Amino acid sequence: MMNRRHREDVLVRRSVTVETIPTGYPVELEAGQLAQITQALGSSFTLLVEGQLMRLKGADADAIGKQPPETIVVPADLPLDELEPLIWDTLRTCYDPEIPVNIVDLGLVYRLDFEPSDDADKVRVVIDMTLTAPGCGMGESIANEVCDKVLTLPRVGDITVNLVFDPPWERAMMSEEAQLALGL
User: Fold this and answer.
1) Which domain of life is it from (predicted)?
2) May I ask the CATH architecture of the domain 80-181?
3) For residue 181, which of 102, 108, 117, 122 has the smallest C-alpha distance?
C-alpha cells in the first residue's frame, strides 16, 4: 500500500459506487473521471474527486487499476482460543477513511466479547466501538466493514457491532504508536 504522505493520480476505469466522506452517502463515479488516492490502508482506498473525499471498497480496486488487498488466510479448524487475537488483528485492518491509523490503535474499540451460538462449533462476537466524533457519517460504514471482515473468520457464526458513545472518545484513548503517527 501507499505511504500516507504520497498521493497518486488515477483514472476511474469503470463506473463504481463509492461513499462520500464524512457523510457515508453512496455516489457513482463514472469511467473516465480523474481521482487522487490519498490513503490506501486496510482494505479500502480514500479518493479525492473534484474536492470531495470518497471511500472505495478494496473489492472494487480494479475500478482504479489497483489489485484488491490481500485477505488473511486462516485454517478452518482454528482453535477457539486463537480466535480473539485473530479478531484483534482483523480489526487492525479497519481504518477511518480520514485518519491513517487503524480503529484499534485509535482506541475506538471498547469491548470484544464472545457469546454462545446455536452452532456449538461457532461463537457470536459482540463488539462495542465508538467514533472519533458522534456525528461522523462514516460510523455505519466502518461498523459494516468490521462485520464483513470478522464474519469471514472461522468459528464466527454471528456478529453484533454496537456503536456507543459512552464514554466519549478522546485523544488519550489512542495508542502511543497512533499518537506518534499523527504527530501528537
Assistant:
1) Bacteria
2) 2-Layer Sandwich (3.30)
3) 102
